[in-house]
Amino acid sequence: MSARTALDLSLYLVTDPVLCGERGVVDVVACAVAGGVRVVQLRDKHAEASALLELIEALAEAIDGRATLLVNDRLDVALAARAAGVRVDGVHLGQGDATVVVARERLGADAIVGLTANSPAHLEAVARLPRGTVDYLGVGVIRPTATKPDHPPALGVDGFARVAAETELPCVAIGGIGIADLAPLRAAGAAGVAVVSALCAADDPRTAAQAFAAEWELAR
């Protein structure tokens, strides 16, 4: 079964090395995946490629196939990891990163390619792409968040619903999401929720992930 056919976006963790603190990204991710996280996106805007490659290898070992593993922005790191035999499922790209068309061509048909989208212009651009180029959209921010200080204006749940209604692609809500937002977002059409501080800064990432996963299921 390919990563694409097995993709479960319900609970999606975006890593933050600062919020993970002394525990480290690998330990936080291992605990969160044990608690129910289904997608892990390695995001570190400041690390060198060599450091990211080491980290992605450690994450792949810790996850051991229990969750989808993506690299934020760095298509070069994802490709290098795959060339080294490390299980990396794909990338998540922002609007200013390597084009998704290039990512799809380089990674192949079975890889996961996600894209940030939060405006009508973004959706129009996605609609012009060849079918199968992008697997899902990351849509946000839902609420203002300190983990991404340069974020666009907050959409709120209603704004998210409007974006999700304009595309056939699964949409993952991200940005300032708390556990109380899960039911409204699922009702608004979210295929899942992406969180950063709610898990990276949690005293017990496993327990926090279990609570999010349980709330998501209750929101069916």
Write a concise synopsis of the structure shown.
By secondary structure, the chain is of the alpha/beta class.
Tell me about this structure.
The protein is α/β, with parallel strands linked by helices. It has one domain: TIM Barrel (Alpha-Beta Barrel), CATH 3.20.20.70. The protein has helices spanning 17-20, 25-35, 49-63, 75-83, 100-107, 120-127, 156-165, 182-187, 197-200, 205-218, and strands at residues 11-14, 39-42, 68-72, 90-93, 112-116, 136-140, 171-174, 192-195. An eight-stranded parallel β-barrel has the order 1-2-3-4-5-6-7-8, surrounded by six helices. Helix 6 links the parallel strand 5 and strand 6. The two termini are 26 Å apart. Mg(2+) binds at residues 73, 97. Condenses 4-methyl-5-(beta-hydroxyethyl)thiazole monophosphate (THZ-P) and 2-methyl-4-amino-5-hydroxymethyl pyrimidine pyrophosphate (HMP-PP) to form thiamine monophosphate (TMP). Residues 11-199 form the Thiamine phosphate synthase/TenI domain. Belongs to the thiamine-phosphate synthase family.
Q: Which spans of ≥5 residues are poorly predicted at pLDDT below 50? A: none
Question: Helical percent range?
Answer: 40-55%
Fourth-level CATH superfamily? Aldolase class I
Strand content: 15-25%
Question: Over the alpha carbons, how many angstroms does the gyration radius reach?
Answer: 16 Å
Structural class: alpha/beta
CATH topology: TIM Barrel
Instruction: Determine the number of helices (DSSP H or I, runs of at least 4 residues).
Output: 10
User: Given this structure, which CATH class is correct?
Assistant: Alpha Beta
What is the total domain count?
1
In CATH, the architecture is Alpha-Beta Barrel
Q: Which geometry do the CA atoms define?
A: globular
Number of strands: 8
Q: Give the integer mean of the pLDDT values.
A: 95
- The succession of helices and strands, N to C, reads EHHEHEHEHEHEHEHEHH
User: Major beta sheet, specifics?
Assistant: 8 strands, parallel, barrel
Terminal Cα span? 26 Å
